[in-house]
Write a structure and sequence with these properties.
It is built from 7 helices and 7 strands; from the N terminus they run βββααβαβαβααβα. With 165 residues, the protein is an alpha/beta fold. Helix 4 crosses helix 6 and helix 5 packs across helix 6.
Length: 165
């Protein structure tokens, strides 16, 4: 019987909580486990949870990122529930290099629908795997930071850490 692993890691921008099924990250965020659990696919959530000290591979890659290897997140496999366009947005988001930003409009275009800027923004807001799926790298046209579910101070800190600000 499979079980979901949970862990929290201290980072320079706050405590990052993770939920994984084997080697696939299902949720990550800076507001604790409860909001992450609430966003999981029901089939995953029903498996139950086990708190661990580290999640093999994933915890190491998170540590590597915060130690300065800004490409480390690219090695983490992810999966989250969402409609086709949201999936396309998250896939496009993962292609934004560390140290760069992209506008919501460009993100919508790269996800396959230039007219769906609001839907791209909604997909960012529903992203369950931040900062590994890097919604912090998405900004308003013109460069204003826009919103971030974990607060603008965290978004700014991540972008400064990556050299984008």
């Amino acid at each position: 019987m499979s079980v979901l692993f949970t862990v929290s890691h201290k980072t320079p921008v706050g405590t990052l909580s993770l939920i994984a099924r084997e080697q696939i990250l299902l949720a990550a965020g800076f507001n604790g486990l409860d909001p992450l659990v609430a966003g999981l696919d029901l089939a995953d959530a029903e498996l139950g949870f086990k708190s661990v000290r580290t999640i093999p591979v994933i915890s190491d890659l998170v540590a590597d990122y915060f130690d300065g290897d800004l490409q480390a997140f690219n090695g983490i496999k992810v999966r989250q529930p969402g409609q086709d366009f949201s999936q396309a947005v998250w896939k496009a988001m993962r292609k934004i290099p560390a140290g760069k930003t992209m506008s919501y409009a460009e993100l919508a275009q790269r996800a396959g629908s230039a007219a769906a800027v609001r839907a791209a923004g909604s997909a960012c807001a529903r992203n369950l795997i931040a900062p590994i799926v890097p919604c912090h790298r998405v900004v308003k046209t013109g460069g204003d930071l826009g919103n971030y579910g974990y607060g603008l101070n965290v978004k700014q800190a991540l972008l400064k850490f990556e050299g984008a600000l």
